[in-house]
Amino acid sequence: MKIWNKFVAWLWTFRGGYAVRYVESDELPSNLARQTLTVAREDGELWVAGMICPCGCKAKLELMLLEEAKPRWDLRVDQKGRPTLSPSVWRNQGCKAHFWLRNGKIFWCRESVASA
Ligand SMILES: [Zn+2]
User: Could you tell me the pTM of the whole model?
Assistant: First the structure.
């Protein structure tokens, strides 16, 4: 993670956090919005969530939500439309970002800071 990316990511933490956007589609749109968890829904079933890597590297992260997918994530959305993902998101390639998305906010895990 470059210093500039870290700075930009830090700035974005002041922008009110993540919102959820649903798209009726069997795939994620190629252009994901910043500060948005885009969730693809088909026939009422949520199956994948996408977001831009919050570290600033601009990688597109795809998180499977289907029961039978591995690995998969649980998505909860509170009354204000703020998403929570569990478990944490850990990229095993590229920037190796490791973070939690909780109530629309990014919480960085120590390991990813230490290895950056
Ligand atoms: Zn990244």
Answer: 0.81
